[in-house]
Specification:
5 helices, NagB/RpiA_transferase-like
Amino acid sequence: MTERHHIRQQIREARRRLSRTEQQAAAHAIKDRVAATPHLAQAGKVALYLANDGELDPHPLINWYWSQGAQVYLPVLHHFSPGHLMFLRYDPDAQLIANRFGIPEPRLDIRLLLPKQQLDVIYTPLVAFDAAGNRIGMGGGFYDRTLAGWHQGTGPRPVGLAHDCQQLSAIPVDHWDVPLPELLTPGRHWRW
């Protein structure tokens, strides 16, 4: 078993152990952090995700962005470019279908598609992170491929969302990993 695989198992189990009350408190704390951070609060086009497997639930944040008049987009597994994500507009009445991983996503409608370069922020889920901004995802590389190039100004700013229990002192890094410039937990706002 690789070290990264072991980390995924350990941290996924830790976040699944969080109670419903802890999950809800964390979700609202993240929303409050974003609302108090001008460059995030003023974003007009944001990509979020729907929580799965104990991930930090962004629903309060999604609702808050809607109340501010922002457009919210969700990741959808790319239909023509395997291993990549595309982003479709998400509204309260959006029809969702389960993708091949069982995660709800908007039904493909080309009229709702937005090129990632037009997003202001991509909020990313993750499994683990360290104090240097490194992240470990679920292992498919979808977000690493999507975020590649953002340092050169060819994409929106990525911001990780996580529970405090997902922090490790250091995580192993591969050459394709894309570190985050910013990450929010209920207890802290990280910037690198």
